[in-house]
Design goal:
Strand order of the largest sheet: 10-9-8-11
Number of strands: 11
Number of domains: 2
Radius of gyration: 22 Å
CATH architecture of the largest domain: Alpha-Beta Complex
Oligomer: single chain
Shape: globular
Largest sheet: 4 strands, mixed
Distance between the termini: 43 Å
Helix content: 25-40%
CATH superfamily of the largest domain: paralog of FGE (formylglycine-generating enzyme)
Strand content: 5-15%
CATH topology of the largest domain: paralog of FGE (formylglycine-generating enzyme)
Structural class: alpha+beta
Number of helices: 9
């Protein structure tokens, strides 16, 4: 696929995600972490304009000078911006104006790419494509939050599955490391894989794209550990609830226990007990809880509490990466026990691009893998997602370790 074809494909995919929406859905912001779909569409268009067209396309004239203020997310280098909490107040520009903005920028981008670009600019455009894919995942999660907090529980579509993320080169679950991965129980399919102590390479290496927070590749020593073949299911998590998991402080971090009490949390996000039966809001609407599926929309606090209740723990991000060839992943972003910190040798790029990841390396936890909302082939085993511990509107889940 040529660079122009990749650009066209990613731009079309963003609009396809929004196609089922009504216009009123485009402007809602229920909480600070959720951005209106209209803002996402404008922001990922502004990114192309601010980072590619203005500095690299001679004679380009910005579509609207106000859009730099409206659609800048967090780039201090670029200038002033609408605060994140106020994105839902942007009744103007309207939805039609945002789509017109997209067409304006797309026309210029196609001309730029068609004229030929050098390696440095091509790398920037590849970054922009991956940036837009990140927002496609956010579009799904934000749309679900918007519709899932509508009292009518409207469906986004007639099916819940929103994508497939397993990379083409990812092995099926259970591919053996030889002596490295062994059954825990003699003669029975192991619940956990045993990974031996040793030195493991962590971080991205080789050709292709990666984000700067996946660098530099480095070696770590890991002790023996066991990691679950499968994610925790709704059925398994329901046992935690019915056993009083949300009412016993002993399983929780102090900060997590405060969060439970302050917010009266008693189940994963989108779970509703109706006439004695558990239901879950999905992108296909409100459905009876499917107990076989991996539990979803779990905060780090909940993941850690469940692991403690099971007599286990969450894997560190290095453990997860070292073992990731041994199990299938991609259905849920998986919480780890690792704080989001720079790797040895990490360096921020100069200018606004340097604000992309490095300045968020504080007070957040790392998630690994991908989810059903992640665009195809966007993730890889070295990909480092990161969120604050109480957040759970993403498609997050639990894999245990010991």
């Amino acid at each position: 696929m040529t660079l122009l074809e990749k650009y066209r494909a990613v731009r079309k995919a963003s609009e396809d995600i929004c196609r089922p929406l009504q216009k009123e859905d485009y402007v809602v912001q229920p909480v600070v972490d959720v951005s209106p779909p209209k803002w996402h569409l404008g922001h990922i268009t502004w990114f192309w304009e601010a980072f590619v067209l203005i500095p690299h396309y001679r004679g380009y004239r910005p579509c609207n000078p106000d859009y730099n203020f409206v659609f800048n997310s967090y780039y201090e280098t670029i200038g002033a911006r609408v605060m994140r909490t106020d994105r839902g107040n942007l009744s103007r520009p309207g939805v039609d104006e945002v789509y017109a903005y997209r067409r304006y920028v797309d026309e210029a981008m196609e001309k730029l790419i068609s004229g030929g670009v050098g390696p440095q600019l091509e790398s920037l455009i590849i970054l922009g494509i991956n940036h837009e894919q990140q927002h496609q995942e956010l579009l799904y999660t934000d749309i679900k939050y918007i519709l899932g907090h509508n009292p009518l529980f409207p469906a986004y579509s007639d099916k819940d599955l929103v994508g497939s993320t397993q990379p083409a080169d990812q092995p099926d679950a259970g591919v053996s490391l030889g002596v490295a991965a062994r059954q825990v129980a003699d003669g029975q399919l192991a619940t956990f894989l045993l990974i031996p102590a040793g030195i493991y390479g962590i971080g991205f290496a080789g050709d292709g794209f990666c984000f700067d927070n996946e660098l530099e590749r480095h070696n770590v020593y890991l002790n023996d550990f066991r990691i679950a073949r499968d994610l925790v299911t709704n059925e398994e998590y329901l046992e935690f609830i019915e056993n009083g998991g949300y009412t016993d402080f002993v399983w929780w971090h102090a900060e997590g226990w405060d969060w439970v009490k302050k917010n009266a949390v008693g189940a994963p996000l989108y779970w509703h007990r109706i006439e004695g039966q558990w239901h879950e809001y999905t992108l296909a609407g409100l459905r009876p809880l499917d107990r076989r599926k991996p539990v979803c929309h779990i905060s780090y606090y909940e993941a850690a509490a469940y692991a403690a209740w099971k007599g286990c723990r969450l894997p560190t991000e290095c453990e997860w990466e070292a073992a990731s060839d041994e199990f299938a992943w991609g259905k849920r972003w998986e919480w780890t026990e690792s704080a989001y910190l720079p790797y040895p040798g990490f360096k921020k790029a100069p200018g606004a691009i340097g604000e992309y990841n490095g300045k968020f390396m504080v007070s957040q936890m790392v998630l690994r893998g991908a989810s059903v909302a992640t665009p195809e082939n966007h993730s890889r085993k070295t990909y480092r997602n990161f969120f604050h511990p109480p957040l759970r509107w993403q498609f997050t889940g639990i894999r245990l370790a010991t």
